[in-house]
Amino acid sequence: MIEVEHLSKTYGINTAIDDISFSVEKGEILGFLGPNGAGKTTTMRILSGYLPATTGTARVAGFDVHEASMDVRRSIGYLPETPPLYLDMTVEGFLYFVARIKGIPAGDRATQVNFAIERCNLQEKRKVIIRKLSKGFRQRVGIAQAIVHNPPAIVLDEPTVGLDPKQIIEVRNLIKTLAGDHTIILSTHILPEASMTCDRVAIINRGKMVATDTPDNLMAQLTEGSGYELEVEGNIEQLRPLLQEVPGVREVEVTKTPEPENLNPTPFLVRYPSRSRLRIVSSPGSEPGRAIATAIVSAGLGLYEMRRVRPTLEDVFLQLTTEELHFEPEDRLGDDGEAFQSTVKSQQSSDEKTLSETGGRGDGEAGETQ
Ligand SMILES: Nc1ncnc2c1ncn2[C@@H]1O[C@H](COP(=O)(O)OP(=O)(O)OP(=O)(O)O)[C@@H](O)[C@H]1O
User: Fold this and answer.
1) Where does the ABC transporter domain lie (predicted)?
2) How far is the CA of 73 from the centre of ligand 1 (A)?
């Protein structure tokens, strides 16, 4: 549905995007991630026909953005970071206005406006002046104006920025319901949002595409950050060499040692002063959890908590977009610009398997309400 090939854009001497290529299949939601100034908005504006590229091609629904820009505009709905709303119009009046601007024939406008109002759940607000709406409802009106002509593709630039947690969930759910019928590109800074909402993500840094894959695949291949956190009671120095011998264990770090009772100034604040906390880093692809638990129990120590730690999309993002990359050579971008084939399974908290006195944290939606 959307195909981008070797797209570049320069502003004077400043290269905003540099030879990027990607595609989005029909019905897919692609998350477009990148730090500030990475080139996301520039790419989205080119795709939406609002900005010419310097070199390269982009096609939406088969139409070239340069050669058939009017067809492209008919095929795409664009929600810029700041929704273009006329605050003194009613929701309905504004959508009729947009429908006319977008060239919808007069006889079809009522149907199309009703379609957008229903899809965005704005029925109760259709007669309300936009100025009086909350930011969340204004964002829905912004999405309604993007879909009023029922385009096959939708481009949303930071659609949840500035919304409160409840509004974020509502807009996110709305985006999910639009997928399937529509192909969606969604830029966001909220990485759990990308994990939860998007089928695939594309990560752009300094104008270059550094990764495109499903969030799960990207996370699954991250070499750093997999391991376990444990709470153990007993002689930790006796245990440490045993753990280091377990196949798949790369590093054992004691993060909290037992506190000598006479040195503990506030014993009532420390529930378990005799226990240690450990962080174990496992080798990529290994699964030493069972052997770790066996080693601890066989050594006669108490195992009170064992929690798997998995890299998150945030870890992937940081590794790909910070200066000091820590990848092994085979995990880096190839010199030929070949996409990064990388990184870690499942989002950290939702899949954490906790073996604990108090049970699992079960905070898989931790990012949801931030
Ligand atoms: N009109 C312009 N003139 C000159 N430089 C521009 C212009 N628009 C964007 N740039 C530059 O191009 C680069 C990419 O900007 P762009 O807005 O596409 O990034 P972004 O990823 O959307 O950033 P953000 O997340 O902050 O919105 C930046 O270095 C920016 O300063």
Assistant:
1) 2-231
2) 22
Q: Which helix (H) or strand (E) holds 177?
A: helix 165-178
Rounded to 5 degrees, φ, ψ at 30 are -105, 125
Which amino acid residue places its CA nearest to atom 4 of ligand 1? 11
Tokens of 54: 């310097």
Q: Which ligand 1 atom is the nearest neighbour of the CA of 44?
A: 18
Own/partner contacts of 173-177, CB < 8 Å, gap of 24 or more, are: 174/119, 174/120, 174/121, 174/140, 174/143, 175/29, 175/143, 176/29, 177/119
For the segment 239-273, what is each residue's pLDDT rounded down to a tens digit?
Answer: 999 999 999 999 999 987 766 555 555 555 455 66
Output the CA 110–ligand 1 centroid distance in Å: 37
Instruction: Give distance in angstroms: CA of 115 to centre of ligand 1.
Output: 34
pTM of the complete model beyond 0.95 = no
39 lines ligand 1 (CB under 6 A): yes
Tell whether ligand 1 has an atom less than 6 A from the beta carbon of residue 40: yes
- 333 contact partners, CB below 8 Å, separation of at least 6: 210, 339, 340
Confirm or reject: Cβ of 195 under 6 Å from ligand 1: no
Single-letter residue type at 241:
P
Distance in Å, CA 267 to ligand 1 centroid: 54
In this structure, which residue's CA is closest to atom 26 in ligand 1? Answer: 36
Q: Are 211 and 218 in contact (CB under 8 A)?
A: yes
Query: From CA 39, how far away is CA 206, in angstroms rounded?
Result: 7
Least confident span in 104-108, 124-128, 299-303, 350-354: 350-354
